Amino acid sequence: MRREQLSDEVAAHLRAEIMTGVLRPGTFIRLDETAATLGVSITPVREALRTLRGEGMVQLEPHRGHVVVPLSRTDVEDIFWLQATIARELAATVAERITDEQIDELERLNGELADAVGQQDHELISSAEFAFHRAFNHASGRIKLAWFLLHVARYLPALIYSSDPGWGAEAVQGHRELIAALRRRDVDTTVRLNGAQFTDGAARLISRLDQIGMWNHENASDSASNM
Description:
By secondary structure, this protein is mostly helical. Helix content is 75%, strand content 4%. Helix 4 packs antiparallel against helix 10 (187-211).
């Protein structure tokens, strides 16, 4: 495996742990410990942390190392808002430009997702979901805009969704409704359904972070400031 690819995988792992609250704000990410946990050398971990520093997810404290920066509820909402905004724009174009052959391909890919959900194979579910939306976005012909969505989608911790049986079944059904809307060339419904997945994704992630007390200190600070 190329070093750049390994670094990207380490960054994706750490990014997901930060987004899901496994790595809390203020936590120091140790090079040696992380490398040992992931079974890699220190070099890709160092490069991954450099990437995350550029994204504003960690910061380097002199003589202490990389620390996770605060992630507010607004930060999470903003990330999903941006994804939903781009996704709706792409969906409007897809509904107008997609061919019957491309719709058939989406149906085939959704069948693969349904099979993965039936097997409860979390990694396969994630890859099948990604393949479906990659094909959907590619059908727009707006490659640069699709690239921006892919870039922002890195912040979406796929495994917390793919490991939820309820989410998998809902995703398959949602795709079926989306495909039906595409066959009707129903732009409004296509846009609504494609944007709704991000509204749902934000709600699920925020609910999880609330459950683990991610922002309890913020609530405590607000209460103290109101006294």
